[in-house]
Design brief:
Helices cover about 40% and strands about 15% of the residues. It is built from nine helices and seven strands.
């Protein structure tokens, strides 16, 4: 999502928090080698949950590494409670069904399903929830990771290994080919903005071959170029949609 002057302070705070989170996620290892953000324009908002499902279900993704973390201003939690509290604070009786649904979704143990159902629940309320001044500090991060190389199928491991050899360092290639590499080679996150579900602000800085109001699915990755290239290639093959660089480094 494109940063605006009004959201600068909050965005910087969110970035710092995100870096700290990844330090924890990689269990004390150095910060991930890269930070990429790519996006694809969708036909409509109804496609968002399906595309998230497809991405998190790509061959080689580790279902045990999908986790949700919600940030609302200075509050964060590994559940949806900060978002529920924010919506409750709006004191709009029309949000009561949404709040009940979010509380129910928050009880799901399957984190991938929780992310998908969250977006489905937000869709009917996207216009009522829209808030430009707070949209960049109200984010649900859906963390994901590729499986360790030794856990990948032979074909997937070969694909990823070849891409790493082309795009990353020889040391990183050796690490991956050993069968067990640093976790920070493999992790990323999908950003969901409950107060700007369409995420259309990217249209002001990136030329997508789509109408300016087309929703943008934003996917971020913090690991190796070859790993992320594999994910984007697989997603393009599965959906026919291409991803464009929107922020951070490019592959």
């Amino acid at each position: 999502m494109k940063m605006t002057p009004s959201s600068l302070a909050g965005t910087l705070f969110a970035v710092i928090l995100l870096i700290l989170i990844f330090k924890v996620l990689v269990r004390g290892q150095i910060l991930p080698p890269h930070e990429f953000a790519y996006g694809t324009a969708l036909k409509n908002c109804d496609e968002i949950p399906a595309r998230i499902d497809q991405f998190l279900s790509l061959e080689g993704m580790d279902p045990n590494q999908v986790n949700i973390q919600t940030f609302v201003g200075n509050t964060s939690a590994d559940n949806l409670r900060p978002l529920v509290a924010y919506i409750s604070s709006q004191k709009d009786r029309h949000f009561k069904p949404l709040l009940a649904e979010l509380k129910s979704i928050d009880q799901l143990s399957n984190q991938k399903e929780k992310a998908i159902q969250l977006v489905k629940a937000l869709l009917p309320y996207k216009d009522a929830l829209r808030n430009e001044s707070e949209q960049d500090t109200t984010i649900v991060f859906v963390y994901y990771a590729l499986k360790q190389p030794s856990k990948l199928s032979e074909g997937t491991r070969a694909k990823v290994s070849n891409l790493i050899k082309q795009l990353d360092t020889s040391k990183q290639s050796t690490d991956f080919d050993s069968g067990k590499c640093p976790k920070n080679y493999l992790v990323g996150n999908i950003n969901i903005y409950p107060l700007a579900l369409e995420n259309t602000s990217w249209h002001s800085s990136v030329e997508f071959a789509s109408p300016k109001m087309a929703p943008i699915l934003e996917i971020r990755f913090m690991g190796l170029k070859g790993v992320f290239k594999y994910m984007l290639d697989e997603m393009a093959a599965k959906t026919g949609q291409s991803f464009m660089h929107v922020d951070g480094e490019s592959i």
